[in-house]
Design brief:
Helices cover about 50% and strands about 15% of the residues. It has helices at about 1-20, 25-40, 45-55, 65-85, 90-95, 105-110, 125-135, 150-165, 175-185, 220-225, 265-285, 300-305; strands spanning about 100, 115-120, 140-145, 165-170, 190-195, 205-210, 210-215, 230-240, 245-255. A hairpin with a 2-residue loop joins strand 6 and strand 7 (about 210-215). Helix 1 (about 1-20) crosses helix 4, helix 3 (about 45-55) crosses helix 4 and helix 10 packs across helix 11.
């Protein structure tokens, strides 16, 4: 039965990649908005977790306001998937049109000087679209991907992201991913790493929007180990002025987080991760509906999952 479920999952992803890409743009996005609304109304586990996370970062909202925010959050989340299915067919010009970039000057200078850049990202907006833009308009992109189940689904996502020009390393099930990433940082690459959720059980506890949360140590640890520049990066949606009713993503490269160079390595990594969490927390508060966090991230939820 598990194998039957795996086959159905793979078939579903493949159908999405083929069918959604053939739909007219307005019809495709309209369909995913309706799917998001149906999913919100069913109030399954993922929606409940999204609501709980939003309630923590936006405690000032009343029940009705929180419900509206969750509905918009699910629409943003499903918009990401619709864009991902359609992304391989988009030209460089279309990708450029779908992105607005802020604060990229220092990053471009690092790359021009032959130095790598590590980016601390959260699950905000559309990071795949940002990666596709980066490979075409910024520099070589190297990152990691969570190994999904079933394996065939992971292979589909891997092939998709590599087709966009990114170099992808598996987070688990391969070699020493930290060593491999460190090896890539000997040349001018952009290394965006999703770090607002710890997937390794070796993460760091930091403050996020007034609550303790566990985040990945990798971005700051790589910076301490190699001297690469570390920039928090936030991504959110905004209405696209060239396409009424549609959206584009805004990629913001925030100022570099400096290595304090005092204390133990773990203390330095923790301090830098906290600075990134502060930047990310501000972005999450401002663009909460674009934070696609349908999993537990706060320590209280991790320790008391019931």
């Amino acid at each position: 039965m598990k194998r039957v479920g795996d086959v159905l999952a793979v078939s579903g992803y493949r159908l999405g990649w083929s069918a959604v890409r053939r739909l007219p743009e307005r019809a495709a996005y309209g369909l995913f908005d309706r799917l998001a609304d149906v999913t919100t109304a069913r109030d399954g586990h993922g929606v409940q977790r999204l609501r709980a996370n939003y309630a923590r970062v936006r405690p000032e909202l009343g029940p009705a306001e929180l419900d509206d925010l969750v509905r918009e959050g699910m629409r943003s989340y499903l918009r990401y998937y619709c864009e991902a299915f359609r992304l391989p067919d988009r030209s460089r010009a279309e990708i450029e049109q779908a992105v607005r970039v802020l604060g990229d000057g220092p990053v471009r200078q690092e790359l021009a000087d032959g130095r790598p850049v590590v980016c601390f990202l959260g699950h905000l907006g559309n990071w795949d679209l940002a990666g596709a833009w980066g490979t075409r308009s910024l520099g070589p992109v190297v990152t990691v991907a969570e190994r999904l189940r079933p394996e065939e689904v992971y292979a589909e996502f891997l092939a998709f992201r590599e087709s966009l020009g990114m170099t992808i390393l598996p987070l688990t099930g391969g070699g020493d991913v930290f060593a491999e990433l460190r090896g890539h940082l000997t040349r001018p690459v952009v290394m965006p790493l999703l770090a607002d959720r710890d997937l390794t059980a070796r993460g760091l506890e930091v403050d996020l929007c007034g609550h303790r949360a566990r985040m990945a140590a990798g971005p700051a640890a790589l910076t301490v180990a190699t001297g690469a520049a570390l920039h928090p990066v936030s991504i959110h949606y905004e209405p696209d002025p060239a396409r009424p009713g549609r959206h584009r993503v805004v990629i913001t490269f925030h100022p570099r987080v400096e290595d304090p160079r005092v204390g133990t390595t773990r203390q330095r990594v923790t301090a830098m991760t906290q600075q990134c969490a502060d930047v990310l927390g501000s972005a999450i508060r401002e663009h909460t509906e674009d934070w696609h966090m349908l999993q537990r991230v706060f320590v209280e939820d991790l320790e008391h999952p019931g």
